[in-house]
Amino acid sequence: MLSKKASFGSHGENSSYFVGLQEYEKNPYDSVHDPSGIIQMDLAENKLSMDLLESWLAKNSDVTGFKEDGGSMFKDLALFQDYHGLPSLKKELAEFMEEVRGKRVRIDPNKIVLTAGSTSANETLMFCLAEPGDAFLIPTPYYPGYDRDLKWRTGVEIVPIQCSSSNQFQITNSTLEEAYKHAQELNLDVKGVLITNPSNPLGTTMSQREINIVINFYMEKVIHIVSDEIFSATVFSSPNFISVLETIHQRNLQDSIIMNLVHVVYSLSKDLGHSGFRVGMIYSNNEMVISAATKMSSFGLVSSQTQHLVSNILGDKMFMKYYMKENLRRLRKRHGMLVSKLKRIGIPCLRSDGGLFCWVDMRHLLSSKTFEGELELWNKILYDIKINTSPGSSCHCSEPGWFRMCFANISEEMLHVSMQRMKVFVESFPGEQIKEKRQQNKISILRKPLVLKWVLKLSLFESQMDR
Ligand SMILES: Cc1ncc(COP(=O)(O)O)c(C=O)c1O
């Protein structure tokens, strides 16, 4: 009765990433009403600086009240807008992006297409750059949403560039070549490489060397580069973020024809914590892409009310300067807290300098070094100690045992409770005994609720003692 698209599970919602989100909704943690509920550490949202934005709103009630120079703007905003978007927002976005890139590149507002978040920007680019059945190469681990955003409606395929922990998951010439060869073996026409810089889920910025490797590769193969830079202003320690646009500029390629193959995706969902406002964009030098994407943006416009509000926030340069500095300070502190608390219980993280999460190494806690072992551990963490994380397999990581833990969507108190739970959990399965314990657990399934109750009780008690 329904179309294949509507009835087949190609959306990807049965991946552990989406399952975890659904489980959390059923039983969320609440320090008063449900202190044994699930703590959500699987959502890359920034709630740390909401108070700054709220105080801006309180001081700028004219903007939310549709007033300007004493008159009403309601009619202008409420009536139909065309799909090019407000010029004032494009100008502010361009200036903000230049600022984030240390003014080392010029961003032309006329080369911006507004979209309903990066989700829409990524999909629109796939529609513009590839046919169904064509492929994009993406370094692993990657943001689980790409399986939906890039593939689902467009029919585009993703071929993984298999990166490994042996070099901190960096892209190399050989991993790129292998992925390209693999795509050819599958009879797929490779249309481009998509990089996420800074990376979700790694929280790392790409080095100049890596960006140059990708640029050399796309020039040699004459394919597109899509650079998803959604976390570009969420970089809180060095080495700093370098945009692909800067490297192109440095190499004097900005006026070459090859520049028509570079496209940047951005949104305010992370850097400004505006994921609900759906303000995203494509930046491209390619006039045909800009023209086609602008027409396609009819299917995912940003409301004029939101455009008006956001252009005013970005336009307040004094506020933005303060916001950026303070927001990064808070993120740096929170990131440090998670890293050091995990370290204290013997869990290392990949060294990272940005993003809203850590890439956590729990390989030593696996019952077997397989993805089954990883899923088993993820299930225990979710259902026994009630912390929702993303297992590496949901990000297509090639090695089992890595997990993404988000730190900016929860309160300090929740971070504390979650780490107490982890501590008790890890201490109950020390070193060599882990394997043995798992065997025992399998046998004594009936005892599991008792163990769970004990872990939750103990973690609650310890967290109260600590404070
Ligand atoms: C790398 C990456 N790209 C795109 C998105 C989608 O962002 P948006 O909320 O702007 O659609 C996300 C969201 O987490 C992301 O991490």
Automatic annotation (TrEMBL):
Protein's UniProt name: ACC synthase 5
Which segments does the entry list as coiled coil? none
**Aminotransferase class I/classII large domain residues:** 39-419
Classification lineage: Eukaryota, Viridiplantae, Streptophyta, Embryophyta, Tracheophyta
Keywords associated with the record: Pyridoxal phosphate
GO biological processes: amino acid metabolic process
MF term (GO), any: transaminase activity
The organism encoding this protein is: Artemisia annua
The answer to keyword Cell inner membrane applying to this record is no
Q: Which domain of life is it from?
A: Eukaryota
